[in-house]
Amino acid sequence: MLETLIFMAALVGLVWFWADSMRTREVALRHCARACQDANVQFLDQTVAQASLGLGRDARGRLVLRRRYGFEFSTNGTDRHRGVAAMTGRIVEFVRLEHPGGPFIMTGGTVHAIN
Known about the structure:
Layout: H1 2-38, E1 42-43, E2 49-57, E3 63-74, E4 81-88, E5 91-97, E6 104-107, E7 110-113
């Protein structure tokens, strides 16, 4: 009986983690696409890939998952450059584009060039 309860709790935890990861990935995907659009570059493959996963604290001090997603973009349709999105829970910390003319970063919904 105890083994069944442990198994069910683990299964519920895995399902929650998978669902939470998919929702967070969709948020990152939307913000990466928007950052590329705002920076006037092409968002390649229309996807993001999780690069890292860890624990962190949100603005309220609660323990949440911190994720980083990688993606690629093009400035002219033939080149490929990297970008990264950092998430704390489902909140976007930043989206950074490693543009050949200098990096761009999106925070708070606004894209800024970094000098």
